[in-house]
Amino acid sequence: MPAIEVNNTSRTYGKVQALNSISLSVEYGELFGLIGPDGAGKSTLFRILTTLLLADTGTASVAGHDVVQSYRQIRKEVGYMPGRFSLYQDLTVEENLRFFATIFNTTIEENYNLIKDIYEQIEPFKKRPAGKLSGGMKQKLALSCALIHKPKVLFLDEPTTGVDAVSRQEFWDMLKNLKEKGIAILVSTPYMDEASLCDRIALIQSGKILQTDTPEEIVKSYPSPLYAIRSNNNYELLKVLRDKNYTKSALPFGEYLHLATHTSMGVDEIISTLNTGNYPDLEIKPIKPDIEDLFLELSREV
Ligand SMILES: Nc1ncnc2c1ncn2[C@@H]1O[C@H](COP(=O)(O)OP(=O)(O)OP(=O)(O)O)[C@@H](O)[C@H]1O
């Protein structure tokens, strides 16, 4: 039986359809990413799976227990790191951890093995109030607190939002170690670059899952030839490209434009359609799509 199973789950808030018939399953030892922008419905799904919110329709089970009938059992067996860290700001690092251990009827010592690698990094600051920690340290403490009762399933809602790049990388390394211990991990993120660090991902937008697969397969399913283009006037170039009949989509991506074409074209062929005098430093190269390209492609179809 999967660690998490969701079948046709929907939830509305008034007129807002936050989740629209979501289905997914996550195995033990799997790191599963829920990838989507703000407002996609990620937190709503987390709240349903951690038994804090009821779905309107559909069924879901976590660690083999139904989220409605066996909510007490689920609360004992899962760890949850909500979007905004759930730490007590006035309590010290050590007091926070002891508090979470106590409410789950355990001790720091009993499960120290599971959090050792993470907690060791913040232990030098154990007398510091949680409110005075950096973002990266808060994140490590929140993860330690979510793990202290040895959960079978871990829910992490945007754990890396607002955390510096080095801490983000360290955090993903920690998740890899945890899944190797057999814990199922459902993690949400708005950062597309983090998607490739998951075993499988679901792309979610406006309450709907657009696609579920491994990051590699998701990227492979991108349907068009793709080029990165840069010039001294990307704004105008974007408008020009969007008017070409070979263009399927043209979108800004940092300092480049990503151009998807209906059929495969040589770089020279594309250049020959542009008034190159207007773009003295034009640069164009075929590229492999990444998850963000696919996400935007799928979003266009919704
Ligand atoms: N309590 C609520 N009352 C009304 N609407 C809500 C409530 N909670 C969420 N929503 C709406 O439901 C939709 C999904 O929100 P949700 O918080 O699940 O998304 P999210 O992907 O987690 O994004 P975020 O990171 O912004 O929280 C959004 O349109 C949001 O405005």
TrEMBL record:
- Any idea where the ABC transporter domain is? 4-231
Keywords, A to Z, come to:
ATP-binding, Nodulation, Nucleotide-binding, Transport
| Entry-linked InterPro entries | AAA+_ATPase, ABC_transporter-like_ATP-bd, ABC_transporter-like_CS, ABC_transporter_ATP-binding, P-loop_NTPase
Q: Which domain of life is it from?
A: Bacteria
**Xref: Pfam families:** ABC_tran
Q: Name one GO molecular function term.
A: ATP binding
What is the similarity comment for this entry?
A: Belongs to the ABC transporter superfamily.
Q: What is this protein called?
A: ABC transporter ATP-binding protein
Q: Give the source species.
A: Fulvivirga marina
